Amino acid sequence: MHKNQMGASGALVKMTDGPSGGNCVLVYYSCMDCAVEAARTPASGG
């Protein structure tokens, strides 16, 4: 990903005691204040 361009990055992760299957999604925000982006999540169905 480049700083001033659109796009999305991703990663495969493994967490101790993390659930598997179903809707196991981690969301990473690239922003100055994650609270602003997190506040938009419920309206988007998350």
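(ticket continues) Second input and output from the same batch:
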Amino acid sequence: MRFEDAMVVCEDTNGKEYVIQKKKIPEEATEGNVIKKGITGKYSMDTDEEFLRKHRMEKMNEKEEKVIVEPSIYS
């Protein structure tokens, strides 16, 4: 397993992103709960800026893809 496969980016209620090891994520920190309730610092690791940068680029690319693949109302 590559190092990045064991990592996930979570966002707390203040919009701050954390890089967290998947095995350290508590059960209650599902994606929905992390966004609604936030996460505490004890679950976060030192922010991995390179990993976050790649994550943000992927999110931006996904947004661009969504715009491109929207069906035309004229087709």
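Agent notes: Helices lie at 31-37, 49-69. Residues 49-69 form the longest helix (21 residues). Closing as not reproducible unless the customer responds.
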